[in-house]
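Dear colleagues,

As part of the handover before I leave the project, I'm documenting each prediction I ran so the next person doesn't have to rerun anything. This entry is a single chain, and its sequence is reproduced below.
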Amino acid sequence: VPFGKRKYYTAVVLRLHHKPPKGVEIKEIHSLTDSHPVVNEHQIRLWEWISFYYLSPLGDVYKAALPSMMKPQDLEERYRSRTETYIRLNTGIHDI
């Protein structure tokens, strides 16, 4: 789902409904990462139980449980170019 300039986020769809919530702008789904579900119903129920038992937001439980490739991140961060650092000794250090 695109939010702002070139920022895309992943999401887990728990339930579908046919009535859009009032006062909320619904974003369009840009693409699907997989053609089949990445998580199953048992995992979702476990995550809901963990959230309830530990009084933790469900989103935090999802972030901890999902594989790192499924976690939201900025596209620029994902495709960051490799950088190299060079260090050179100062040969004139003994002249000080």
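The two ends are 59 Å apart (CA to CA). The chain has a mean pLDDT of 76.

All the best with the project,
I.
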